[in-house]
Specification:
- The chain folds into two domains: about 160 residues, no CATH class; about 350 residues, Rossmann fold (3-Layer(aba) Sandwich).
- It has 19 helices and 28 strands.
- Strands 10, 12, 13, 24, 25, 26 and 27 form a seven-stranded antiparallel beta sheet that branches.
- The longest helix is centred in the first third of the chain and has 25 residues.
- It starts with 12 loop residues before the first helix and ends with a strand.
- Belongs to the eukaryotic GSH synthase family.
- This is Glutathione synthetase.
């Protein structure tokens, strides 16, 4: 055996061997320390031998706190103060870039990446900022909040570098998973797309109020189904409106022709989304009270059902990346697209013809929600296992591509004569401005044996005027009159906000107008149509101005609604081609999806289901919150336990 070289004058090798090994170990540790960091500051890190994960918490705590309010956007650094975006000066840009490269966290991950690869990930973030890049170490330990009311989306990530990496990750995920829109400048093509605006994390929402909205939805659908059966009621409610609103008049004429001729297809399917706000008020003890208050009920073209499920999936990912557990009890499942697809397939099966076609009635000319509509189509094809052919036509195309059989009133494709089983409407009805050709197409569809999803009469039953009339005493009871339905009436009425219509009584109208002029901050002036388009709401000083422009007969096209005071939270907003809005104060609007399949002649309900939801958030300072208009963001609720 080769003799061990002596390193001291002691003749006893047995004593030197452990000493020699200890010295070598110390030298190795010193060498590794110098290699990793190049400075004694490595002692600030917490290297956990058990998990082999480097914790960056202590390092981040020693960083300049100004950096926590700095993020990168579109190649530029911006400072966020109270939600306001300000560009940084050049010297601050240089200071931040320097810190971006020299942070010990980056050096540590670069040198330890190979050694820690089984338990960590290394993501290189290329942002095009002067050729620089930075890294972030994941994963974080996933923790469960002990009390859900402590959840605050604005404080989940405090480090600016890390926040920007999460934003970039979310944007790429949105593009990769169909959370996208057509661009405003290229509405006619899908060659270009932008991600739909979204919040980076879910926004808090009281669990009790959320469950109340879910539980009332099927009752709401039953109410509107029965309203649609009462055509005489619909005519009476809209009799003054048709004097000034040409679209409503045209729709009522189409429905009347169908009833006079006889309904050739009594089976009908409609999808509904009831929109609510979390209204906050003070009780006598100045304590906060929260109530679910209905804003509107939509019943024709429901946008977003193919997008919102993706936002739920995205938010669960983002919470986990921020180190927060995302159980279904806090971020509930969202199946609006699956519900829609299954209901359409059920309707197709009821039609009873194996080679019949499903028609998607779309606006092919200019639709930002093209990918949203496609997501529903793809889900339908999955549910039906590709056994049903899907045809997409606009109303204008229907006049040339479809024909009505004069014998059996079946709706057929001109090219091959195949029968249309279901017409799934994805075009705005009330609030639109249809041409004569489009009205002819509507009449042809309504007269046919195709199952309408929904029929035109359902759109008429969802006008704002109907919603206002339902707040009158006895009106809900008119349609839910049985003893076993009394509790349904109570559930529905609890959600009503104050609504007033401009009726034939001039004295009452004058009182209502004076009330709105005196306190415009307490009301919202709304057109009776559905959706946006050329119709929009009026707030504050715009209310007196608009009322002054309306003749007594034009007042019939509007209703006055109590202005709600929603509870505000903070979150981060991510928008295409714009800097992200950090720690913005936002309010949310909760939408609940559902569907009902029934026989409009007999009143039989074949399917009445609630599934899916959407939260649309906007800045507290904004009055409107439309997704396509760019003033709102798609959000999801994070359920919290508060009174």
């Amino acid at each position: 055996m080769t003799a061990m070289p002596r390193i001291c004058c002691c003749p006893c090798r047995r004593l030197c061997r452990p000493l020699y090994a200890s010295i070598l170990l110390i030298l190795i540790v010193i060498n590794c320390t110098t290699t990793i960091n190049g400075s004694p500051s490595l002692n600030k890190k917490n290297i956990e031998e058990k998990d082999k994960v480097i914790s960056l918490t202590e390092i981040d705590q020693n960083d300049n706190t100004e950096n926590d309010q700095i993020v990168q956007s579109n190649g530029n650094l911006i400072s966020i103060e109270n939600g306001n975006v300000q560009p940084l000066h050049d010297q601050h840009q240089h200071h931040y870039n320097h810190n971006l490269i020299k942070t010990p966290a980056v050096v540590a991950t670069e040198n330890y990446n190979d050694r820690l690869r089984p338990r960590t990930q290394k993501r290189k973030h290329e942002n095009g900022l002067n050729g620089f890049s930075h890294n972030i170490l994941v994963p974080k330990k996933i923790k469960k909040l002990r009390r859900t009311e402590h959840y605050d989306a604005s404080t989940l990530v405090k480090n600016a570098n890390e926040l920007q990496v999460l934003i970039d990750y979310a944007i790429d995920w949105a593009h990769s998973n169909g959370l996208i829109l057509r661009t405003r400048d290229h509405l006619n093509t899908s060659d270009l797309a932008e991600f739909a605006p979204f919040s980076l994390f879910p926004t808090p929402f009281p669990r009790k109020i959320f469950n109340q909205a879910l539980n009332v939805q099927t009752s709401m659908q039953l109410l509107y189904f029965r309203i649609s059966k009462d055509f005489e009621f619909l005519k009476t409610v809209h009799q003054d409106i048709i004097k000034t609103d040409k679209v409503v008049k045209s729709f009522m004429e189409i429905v009347e022709k169908v009833y006079e001729e006889g309904i050739h297809q009594p089976i009908t399917l409609f999808f509904q989304r009831s929109d609510y706000m979390l209204h906050s008020s003070k009780n006598d003890q100045s304590e906060d009270n929260y109530a679910l208050k209905q804003i509107e009920v939509n019943g024709s073209a429901l946008g977003g059902a193919g997008l919102v499920t993706r936002v739920t999936r995205l938010h669960r990912r983002m919470l986990k990346k921020a180190g927060i557990e995302a159980p279904k009890s806090n971020v509930p499942d969202n199946g609006s697209d699956v519900m829609t697809a299954k209901a359409l397939f059920h309707a197709w099966q009821l039609f009873g013809k194996a080679d019949a076609v499903l028609l998607f009635l779309v606006d092919t000319n200019a639709d930002m929600l093209q990918f949203d509509r496609r997501n529903i189509q793809y889900e339908f094809e999955r549910v039906s296992k590709d056994q049903v052919d899907v045809v997409r036509l606009s109303l204008t195309q229907c006049t040339a591509k479809l024909m009505l059989d004069p014998v059996d009133f079946s709706l057929r494709l001109v090219d091959d004569g195949r029968v249309i089983a279901v017409v799934f409407n994805q075009v705005l009805m009330l609030g639109s401005s249809p041409s004569h050709m489009e009205l002819d197409a509507r009449l042809m569809i309504e007269r046919s044996t195709a199952i309408k999803a929904p029929s035109l009469v359902f759109a008429m039953s969802h006008s704002k005027k109907i919603q206002q009339v339902l707040t009158r005493p006895g009106m809900v009871e008119r349609f839910l009159s049985g003893p076993s339905e009394a509790h349904l009436v109570e559930k529905i009425r609890q959600t009503f906000a104050g609504l007033w219509g401009f009726e034939a009584d001039k004295e009452k109208n004058d009182q209502l107008i004076q009330m709105a002029i005196k306190h415009p901050d307490r009301y919202v002036l709304k057109p009776i149509g559905e959706g946006c388009g050329a119709h929009f709401n009026y707030f504050d000083e715009d209310i007196p101005k608009k009322l002054a422009q309306l003749s007594p007969i034009e007042l019939n096209d509007f209703i006055l609604m109590e202005r709600l005071k929603p509870k505000a939270y903070r979150n981060h907003f991510v928008r295409a081609f714009l800097p992200p809005m950090i720690n913005a104060e936002v309010t949310s609007e909760l939408g609940i999806y559902g569907c009902l399949l029934g026989n409009i002649s007999t009143g039989q309900v074949l399917l009445n289901r609630q599934e899916g939801h959407v939260s649309k958030s906007k800045l507290l300072s904004s009055n409107e919150g439309g997704i396509c208009s760019g003033t709102g963001m798609i959000d999801t609720p994070y359920l919290v336990d508060i009174d």
